[in-house]
Amino acid sequence: MDDYKSDIQKDYSEVVRNNLIINHYVKGMSRFLILWIVKYNGSIHGYGILKELDKFFSTFIKEQSLKKSNPSNIYPILNKMEESGILVSELRIENNKKIKYFKITPDGEYLLEYIYSRFDVIHNNPQWKLLFEDMDKMI
Questions:
Q1: Cystine design at 48: which of 15, 22, 24, 44 (Cβ 3.0–4.6 Å)?
Q2: Sheet harboring 87-94: ordered strands across?
Q3: What Å distances lie between residue 49 and 8, 53, 88, CA to CA?
Q4: pLDDT tens string 6-44
Q5: Any idea what the Cα angle at residue 57 is, between residues 53 and 60, rounded to 5°?
Q6: Which residues of the chain register pLDDT less than 70?
Q7: SS (H, E, C) 43-83
Q8: pTM for this one?
Q9: Rounded to 10 degrees, what is the CA torsion of 59, 134, 36, 48?
Q10: CA Rg, the chain, in Å?
């Protein structure tokens, strides 16, 4: 019986790991979380952002349905966020290395607050409530 259960978990893990829905969810949430992480920290370098993101997704990482954040994925996102005016950066010298620190702009703060306010709208929408109630029954 235990072998059967572990086979199901393996198959389930593969489905989760290769599913585009989860990948899109994580990518979308990552941008929101980056804004919050930068606002919360006031000023933070890219590696610090990367480590904070991994904390948010630690459950996914532990169950191997998601890999740890990769600098080759995070830095292009940070650069796009900077280009769009929601983050700004400054170079600092630490231990003879140039390190790029990010701060949130007023536009970024507005966007963060706007997105956060939508969570309340979703929470109070009858259709979303029905979805979450139905999902609770399934789990």
A1: 44
A2: 44-45, 97-104, 87-94
A3: 35, 6, 14
A4: 554 455 666 666 667 777 777 778 889 999 999 999 999
A5: 150
A6: 1-19, 138-139
A7: CEEHHHHHHHHHHHCHHHHHCCCCCCCCHHHHHHHHHHHHH
A8: 0.74
A9: 10
A10: 19
Tokens coding 27: 């990518």
Query: Token digits for 88?
Result: 């700004």
Residue 78 CB-half CA count within 13 A: 27
Q: Which residue has the tokens 């235990």?
A: 2
